[in-house]
Amino acid sequence: VEVWDADDIDGIAAGIPRCDVASGSYFWNQVYGPAAVLVSGTVVLGKNLMTAGDGTAAVVADDSSAEFIIGGCIAVSAATEYAGVFLNIGA
Fold it and tell me: How far apart are CA 26 and CA 38, in angstroms?
């Protein structure tokens, strides 16, 4: 598993880890259900969120094949903070 990088995509998003993970360490990736996700930009309640090039989620802007929907916003937050997201990755 790699940190999401829109400039070097090797596959779909594998999930959202619950904390920072050191290289070579074991961790748990959440793929479904409510989660706190770091977001960039302004998120809108009820709208889908997608992967962003910097490893965060961003408001849907379906303008690039590099984006992957991870779920819907269930609690808004300011940019560069954690928002509530109902994950639906690979389901």
Answer: 21
- Residue 3, both tokens: 């940190």
Per residue in 32-84, pLDDT (tens digit) is 999 998 888 778 888 888 887 666 666 544 455 557 888 899 998 887 788 89
Instruction: Report the distance separating Cα 49 and Cα 91, nearest Å.
Output: 15
Task: Specify the pTM.
Answer: 0.79
Closest CA to 60 of 34, 32, 36, 41: 41
* Rounded Cα–Cα distance for residues 62 and 75 (Å): 21
Q: 């389901």: which residue's tokens?
A: 91
